[in-house]
Amino acid sequence: MDQENPNKIPEFKEAALESFSREKSRRCSVKKNWFWGMVICLSCLVMIVAGGCFSGASQENSKSAADESMSYDQASGEAANAVAEATANTSVSFDTSKIVYSGNISLNTEDYQDTFDKISRYVLEIGGFVQDSGSNYASEQAGVQANSGYVTIRVPSAKFSEAMTHIQTLGSPISANVSSTNISQQYQDVQAQLNNLKIQEERLLEYLKQATNITDMLTIESELNRVRSEIDSLTTTIKNWDIEMAYSTIYVSLYEKHISSSMVNSPFSEIFTKIGEGFVTSINLVLAILAFLIVLIFRLIPFAIIAGLGFLVFIKIRKKIKEKKNKGAKTEKSEKDNTKIENKD
Q1: Which of 115, 132, 136, 160 is least surrounded by Cβ atoms within 10 Å, i.e. has the fewest?
Q2: In 3D, which of 109, 108, 114, 120 has the Cα closest to residue 154?
Q3: Domain layout of the chain by residue ranges
Q4: CA-CA distance, 296 to 127, in Å (whole number)?
Q5: Angle 223-229-231 (CA atoms, 0-180°, nearest 5)?
Q6: 75-97 tens-digit pLDDT
Q7: Which residues contact 122 (CB under 8 A, 6 or more apart)?
């Protein structure tokens, strides 16, 4: 028994040391896991708080936008109701026949005079007429290098769309646009005034027949002349409107394509100007890029500071963990060395 006990003591010590080291490593791992768990929890908490702030801001923005939208819809609804009431209360009907059409066409043509003559003939064929025209012919002395001109034509309103389409086929269109003006309201107002003036004229004529003295006759004749002048003016206005509605106006501008044979137009005449403009454009682009990068850097500074602080904290924590591991390893090594020495003794 006495001989067996000395042999069992070293084995018992080794088992105890191994158990102690395992317990110590377990405690270190528990502490490590606890530390990283706290870090993760704090990170989650920060993210939740930030998310709450952003969501609150977005909710406020959406709420304000919704309030503005509701107020705008309400205002729009009130305006629409007002317009509907005004439309319902008015006694004047909307007459689509009282519309004046006009158009503008710009053409490039190979032969100016030929195109000009074709337009003039076509207008006469569809029952219209040339209202106005003008031409500028090429002249070296005047500095005019190509023929150009214009023609103002009047075509029946029923042929307006057809004429716009046909004229554009006589050359290469540069631009074309159509405009329309509804004069229904003005026409009906003037017509009502004219009817009232005619009634006044009839009454004045009756009063003139019944007048017995010269003073009354002169007063009635003076008023009658005034009323007839207004009637003539309004009648002329209505006639002009009738003509405008019956015959639409088209303004045609003609430009002849011309390559000068008397002088050479060098493509290098403005090359230095173009180079300078290109250089300035490039400098402006570079400056714009630099300005954008500077603004971007200053915007990223807060995030860089936060990331740097987080990285420093991570480095320090990692350094401490390594120091603890090294210290624990040294302790275990020294304990093992002591155990081996004791076993040898």
Answers
A1: 132
A2: 120
A3: 18-80, 101-256
A4: 68
A5: 105
A6: 444 544 544 454 444 444 556 67
A7: 163, 166, 167
